[in-house]
Structure formats: structure tokens, C-alpha cells
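Teaching assistant here, posting this on the class forum so everyone can see the example we discussed in section. The complex has two components, and the goal was to see what a joint structure prediction looks like when all of them are supplied at once.
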Amino acid sequence: MTGFWTQAFTITRRDLLRERRSGEVLWVTLPFGAIALLLVPLAIGTDTRTLEAIGLGMFWVIVMLFGVLIAVRQTNTETQAQRDQVALAGIDPAAAYVGRSLASFLLLVVFETVLVFVTIVLYDIPLVGFEWMPLVILLVAAGLSLLGTLAAGIVSTGRSAAALVPLLVAPLSVPLLIGATQTFESLRYGRSSLAWILMMTIVTLLLGVAGVLSARTLQETG
Amino acid sequence: MTSPEQSELSPSSVWPWVVMAVAGLVTFVAAMSVSPDAVQGQLSRIMYVHVPAAWLAYLAFGITMFGSAMYLWKKSLKWDRLAHSSAEIGVFFTGLAIALGMTWAKPTWGVWWTWDARLTLTAIMFFVYLGYLALRRTTDNLEVRAKRASILGVVAIIQVPLVHFSVVWWRSLHQAPTIIRPEGPDMDTSMVVTLLIAVASFTVMYVAMMIKRMELAHLEDEITIEEQSHQGPAAGDAVVAPDLAGGV
């Protein structure tokens, strides 16, 4: 069998091809996220100062809630037979985990990048500290994709799996949500945001290590 | 293998209940004996249950992580039962801490709930471990259930330091650390002693509850194994081999 990264990239390519055919993320989840951003002002009123103040927070909440759907989509799209085939093909479970996470990561980066522009346009948010935005987007996408893939692996074939995964991922993604929002909150008040960036990095690394170490155990559970 | 009847008659089935009752009584007497707080009055007595309940939640989730890690290492179901039992007790005490905190908050802050970092993160921790318990119900296969739950049991511990340090990291309405701090306790000695008695009593209560819950978990596992070993009639069971020898 080929090397670890070749296997991982094969899985990533498979997932991205599947996404290109189905368009689930880019043509369903992404517009759904944009609609959610449009609905908020209808619910809370159109006071521009209020919207300006809450815009960035709303963006991160929508990234977390809708990002979960992207990160755990394989619970719906991947059947037991497909998982068995990956196992029988001799693909390293850790490589499969990394490959799936990488595909989710790329989709999440696109999702966040599009939505951040939608948020800027709709909410007219102040762009203080936005030079950090690419890094925060990458960290959130990495953390969420690793967490979602891990949770999808944990629940994969159980009863009510599709309903349970968001329940597991949404609360566990809180460190990422806090890190992302507090980074810009700190910058707005002229403080350093390095502690929050560091927290997100550590959480992401821990999730990556947990996912790689548990991949074989999870594959055994079918 | 211990049958349910035997387990009911074993000595451990009685003394944990006695220990729980005594620990509860000690906490009650200690909390009612100490003088009320000069500012908060009688309301401050809630603290003698609220703080130990929060401490037990941390302890219980720490033990869940330990049991989960040990299961992943040793692959023995007793570690999974330890993790499961502890998570269930931890969820109960997290709920109790939240409920008591809300009861205290209404007359003090004027609201049942406020968007304070400690409160919100504690509620999220509660949901994470509810998710852990929900995950355990998704399959009847003991090994599969244990493996999946153990991984979540290890990952979920990330919530505990987040909850604990939230009062340091954010400007919180919730009280900052009062007992364990570099300058020493910021509280009257009688109140500190009462609080420590309550914490110790709750810890003993936790051990007694764990013994009972693990006994129950063991019985549950035995019943599951028993049920799974009784296979129903399979198609073709009624078909017997023909007697080709033509014997009488």
C-alpha cells in the first residue's frame, strides 16, 4: 500500500469529488448560512449600530452551527459498505481520518471566506484587526473539521447518529467559538490576541492528536 | 458471576446508602450551624451545597476521563463502567450546581440566568456530558459502546479547565476563586471550615454513589450479555437432516 499522505490525499480527493457532484456544501449549506445572516436583522430590528456591534459575533455563531453540518456530512453521505471498503483496501485509519478532515477543512475555508464577505456587506462591521482574519478562519476550519470528523467516526453507525453528531460537536466547538470572537474583541480594545490564537491552536492540535490516535479503535467499532 | 439476588444481599448494597445519608446529614448540620454571611444572610447557606456540587462535577468528569483512558489502554469493561458511572453522577451534580446557582442568583442578581462566562460554559459542559450519555444509548454492543464512549470521555475533559478558569479569563459576575488562591482564602475561617467539611462529605458521598452505580452498571452489562446470548429461532431451524439409512 502507498504512503500515509498519498492515502490521506486519496480520501480528500474522493470527498471533494463527491462534493463537486452533490454540491451539498456550496449550493445548499452556504446559501443557507447567508439566509441565516439575512434573517437576524428581521428578528432583532434594523438598528444599524446594533447590527454593526453584533455582526461579527453572528458570523461566528453561524460558522459554528452551519460548519458543524459541513464537518459531519459524512454521517449522511458515507454508508457502512463504503467504510468497509476503505478498511478492506488497507487504508490506514489515521490517514483516512486526516483525509476526511482535510476535505472538510477546505470546504470550511471556502464557507467561512464567502460568509465573512457577506457579513461585512450586510452588517457593515468595523474591520479592526482584520489582518488576523485569515489565520482565525484557518484555525476555526481546522479545529471544526478535526472535531466533526472525530465525532462522525464516534457515532458513525449508531442509532440516531445523524441527530447525535451535532449535539456532540456544537458544545465541544465552544473553545473555537470563544477563541475566534475574543481575538477580535481583544484587538478592538487594543489588547494582544495571542493568548486566544494560542488557545485555538492548542485545541486544534489536541483534536488532531485525539483523532489520529483513536482512528484505529473507531474503525474496529465499524 | 453474581446474580441480582446475591448482589442485593451483599454487604455493599446497604452501607453505601448509610454513608450517603450520613454525608448528607453532616453537610446539612455544618451548613446550618455556621453563622450566616453578613451581607447575603441566610442565602449564603446555598454555597455549602453549590460549591461541593461543582467540585464533584469536576471530580466526576476527571474520573470519567481516567476511566475512559484506562479502557482504551486495558480494554476491560470495568474501566468503561467506572467512566459511565462517574459521568452520570457528574451530570447530576452539574445540574444541581446550576439549579442552586440559579436559586441564589434570582434574589441576588435579580435574574435566574445571566450571560456570564462561568454560567454559560457550565451549561455547555452539562450538555457535552449529556451527549456522552446519549452516545452510550446508540448501540447495545458493549465493546463498541465502550470504545466510542471512551474516546468522547477523553476529549470532553477539555470543558473542565475552560469552566474553571472562565472567572479568571473573563470579567465575570460569578465569584472569582475564594479558597484556592496565592494570597490565601478570602473568607471567614468558620465559613472556610464549613465549606471544607461539606466538600469532604460530598466527596465521600460520591464514592458511595459510585460503588452503587458501578454495581448497577455491572448488572446491566450482565443482562445485556444474557439477552444477546439468547438467539431467537433462525430460519431453517425446523429443517432436520433426512434419515437416509431408513432406520426405524
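For the discussion questions: The radius of gyration of chain A is 18 Å. Residues 4-220 of chain A form one domain. Think about how each of these relates to the inputs above.
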